[in-house]
Specification:
Layout lengths: L1 H33 L11 H24 L3 H6 L1 H15 L7 H9 L8 H4 L1 H12 L1 H29 L7 H12 L12 H31 L6 H14 L4 H9 L4 H18 L1
Helix pairs in contact: 1-2, 2-4, 7-10, 8-9, 8-10, 11-12
């Protein structure tokens, strides 16, 4: 029973990523060439909705199968991957709720993109990256507080200053928040901008500080990414060095090891370094 379950899960593990790719490609084609409000629009090609129904049923069966095959069903249902599996099928079934308008059904169709979160199940590297971000959350907390304080001060000042000069542009506080976020990220849509000297001075400060904050956030992401890089196995390094010592860099065993571990960038760098060292030593 256990072997049959493992084979079934392995087959699903190979099949679902391909179905996800097909689902997203068809969705993009429908958006680009369909020009419809939803897949149930009278002008929509019927094939879109039927393919979606088949794929949604497959993902639903996968979700039910994972529940049945889980050793601890409660842990699976409450896990992040369990929630992702549920979110990936929930919008489709919500679409059967009676009374939904075409516009609402369009939003339901757009929710198909949430299925892309399932890629986390099939990419251990992405899981490691998210785990590193989670373990480093204590470093995000002060930066998040700084961002909140910084945006609140900037949006409040600009709103109080500019609403007296251009009340039609800064009508409410949300306009100040929008401007502060757009300005601090140096995007600058140009739909709202200060005209008073005080407002322009605030904008200069927000842009300068915003560049620094964005750099800090990307720095944390870079640290998390570096943390996902696994250390090179010492046994593999010893085995490769021993094989090179016995057979030379172009021997059968070194070539086989380079072929097997060709996807490991760190091993390739190590092997190239060993090869250059031997060439230099022989010369």
């Amino acid at each position: 029973m256990s072997q049959a379950r493992d084979r079934l899960l392995s087959a699903v593990h190979r099949l679902v990523p391909s179905l996800l790719g097909i689902n997203m490609v068809l969705y993009l084609i429908e958006l680009q060439f369909g020009h419809t409000q939803s897949s149930l629009d009278t002008d929509a090609w019927p094939g879109y909705i039927w393919i979606e129904r088949v794929l949604a049923c497959v993902f639903t069966l996968e979700y039910l199968m994972r529940i049945l095959c889980a050793e601890n069903k409660r842990n699976y249902l409450t896990s992040s991957l369990g929630w992702i599996d549920l979110i990936s099928i929930l919008p489709f079934w919500l679409g059967f709720y009676p009374g939904l308008t075409q516009e609402t059904l369009g939003l339901v169709r757009g929710a198909r993109t949430l299925r892309m979160l399932k890629i986390f199940r099939y990419s251990p590297k992405m899981q490691d990256f998210v785990a590193e971000l989670y373990h480093g959350r204590t470093r995000f907390t002060p930066i998040l507080l700084i961002i909140v304080i910084y945006l609140m001060i900037g949006s409040t000042v600009i709103y109080e200053v500019e609403r007296r000069v251009q009340p039609d542009v800064f009508e409410e506080y949300a306009d100040g928040i929008w401007w502060a976020v757009v300005t601090s990220t140096t995007v600058g849509y140009g739909d709202k901008f200060p005209v008073s000297p005080t407002g322009q001075a605030v904008g200069i400060v927000l842009m300068i500080v915003g560049i620094g904050i964005v750099g800090m956030v990307f720095g944390l992401f870079a640290d998390a990414y570096q943390g996902t890089r696994e250390a090179l196995d010492e046994r593999l390094m010893d085995a490769y060095c021993s094989a090179v010592h016995r057979e030379g860099p172009e021997g059968e065993t070194p070539c086989l090891l380079r072929q097997i571990h060709g996807g490991n960038a760190q091993f390739q760098l190590f092997a190239d370094t060993v090869g250059r060292y031997i060439e230099k030593d022989e010369s």
